[in-house]
Amino acid sequence: MRIAIIGGTGVYDPKFLEKADELIVSTPYGEVKILKGLYEGEEVGFLARHGVGHSIPPHKINYKANIWALKYLGVERILSTTAVGSLRINLLPGDLVILDQFIDFTKARDITFYDGRDGKVIHIDFTTPYCPELRRLLYETAQELGIKAHPHGTYICTEGPRFETPAEIRMYAMFGDVVGMTNVPEVILARELEMCYASVSLITNYAAGISRTPLTHWEVLEVMAQNIEKVRKLFAHVIRKVPKERNCICKDALKEYREKGII
Ligand code: HPA
User: What digits encode the pLDDT tens for the residues 18-44?
Assistant: First the structure.
């Protein structure tokens, strides 16, 4: 299995997979449920980040188990979806954003595989946090399909599970473009295991204080449901085009540490 999809809020089943089987992978961090199916002859994995039926809140997701399990199955590339609030008037509900940067405002998450317990100190470069090859494919394919997608975006990751205050949003809007609760540490852990990771954020609402109405989870789910077909179509077309060889920085994230015999 080379490619996996991580579905966020409102994306619980990979409709385009044929003959999906459920796998339970045991990891050092706990068990993970993954669907394995075929897409045009290619084996593709699907993992529902919040659990099937949305039973796991963002701060309780077992991110390390999820990413470890995908690596164990041989996955090299991850395409993920996230629901986000918009911090910019020109980023409209229903638009897609292909993330290229993030800022971590989480507070209490297990954010690394390299926690120093084995005496190894690892600092990984995050100049290009999302896989440039996957991002380019996503943007080019969105353009070919006539799907509106913004090619760049900084994701502000909050701890959640509550939505933000308008004061927080005024501050976040100075730093980023969209706000969500799940991309950190997922994006970090994928790079730590040298996997390619890209995320397509679907804007479900204007953030608190920009929106004229109080936010609700139902509104997020509704806008997600109205627009998710675009993401499915985009991923389906991107999967067909993903080259066998990886020509990006992601696979070499730990190269120097290997060369120096540290890992
Ligand atoms: N804030 C945080 N997470 C979100 C939002 C939001 O406004 N919308 C969807 N996920």
Answer: 778 999 999 999 999 999 998 878 899
What DSSP state is assigned to residue 244?
A: S
Number of Cβ within 10 Å of residue 174's Cβ equals 7
Instruction: For CA atoms 57, 63, 66, 70, give the dihedral sign.
Output: positive
| CA of residue 163 to ligand 1 center, whole Å | 6
Domains annotated for the chain, with CATH where assigned, are 3-259 (3.40.50.1580)
Residue ranges lining ligand 1, Cβ < 6 Å: 83-85, 158, 163-164, 179-181, 204-205, 207, 215, 220
Measure the CA–CA gap between 155 and 78, rounded to whole angstroms: 17
| Mean pLDDT computed over every residue of the chain | 94
Residue 85 CA, ligand 1 centroid: distance in Å: 4
